[in-house]
Design goal:
The protein has 205 residues and is α/β, with parallel strands linked by helices. 40% of the residues lie in helices and 20% in strands.
Length: 205
């Protein structure tokens, strides 16, 4: 099977039915759009174009864009230890050649504190009184988070915070599906998230 095309995805996002937060299965509000890993930079630009177009009067939708890696860096900068942030401490340890840096970052990326940080951003957006509808959360940067945080781990762990009747999470995934698993960057094995709905071209199934 193959992903729907960019124009098809935009039409999907413009659909009044899909914009309805309660449409579909409200217990499964995770959607994954897979694309070729070598199209990463084009996709980042496309995500912002989606947001700009959706804000037009024909839709009046304000989608939140979450770059997981950027949000993770923001989280590290806000976590203080004495007079230093966790971000600053990590940089110093990396420069000093500390071999435990990767393990520490993996611990933080998979922590409940980071998930709560992401959740607070989502809820602040959903509850904002800006006159727009807020049905979509666009999540990307999963490739930049490797190996600190995997796609299936993030979505599974976030379920404790997830408000499936308030929004749909559209995760942009640089890779493809192989059987019951995902292949990050088309080369790295990544477990399949069974509770996520793949946005695929049904004509090619």
């Amino acid at each position: 099977m193959s992903s729907i095309t960019i124009p098809q995805l935009y039409d999907y996002l413009c659909s009044a039915h899909f914009q309805d937060e309660k449409s579909g299965n409200i217990f499964y509000n995770y959607y994954i759009y897979q694309y070729q890993a070598n199209k990463e930079y084009e996709m980042r630009q496309q995500i912002h174009e989606f947001k700009e177009k959706l804000e037009r009067p024909s839709n009046f939708v304000n989608a939140l864009i979450i770059d997981l890696f950027s949000v993770f860096c923001e989280y590290l900068k806000e976590e203080q230890f004495g007079d230093q942030s966790l971000f600053e401490m990590t940089l110093e340890e990396e420069k000093a050649g500390n071999n435990t840096t990767t393990e520490e970052l993996m611990h933080e990326a998979n922590s409940d504190e980071f998930l709560a940080f992401v959740h607070s951003k989502i809820m602040n957006h959903i509850q904002s009184n800006d006159g727009y509808k807020h049905p979509y959360i666009f999540v990307h940067g999963i490739g930049k988070m490797f190996p600190y945080l995997r796609c299936n781990v993030f979505l599974t762990s976030y379920e404790k915070y997830n408000k499936s009747d308030l929004y749909k999470i559209i995760l942009f995934y640089p890779g493809h599906q192989e059987g019951n698993s995902f292949s990050l960057f088309d080369t790295l094995h990544d477990d399949h998230t069974y509770r996520a709905i793949l946005l695929v071209n049904e004509k090619n199934i």
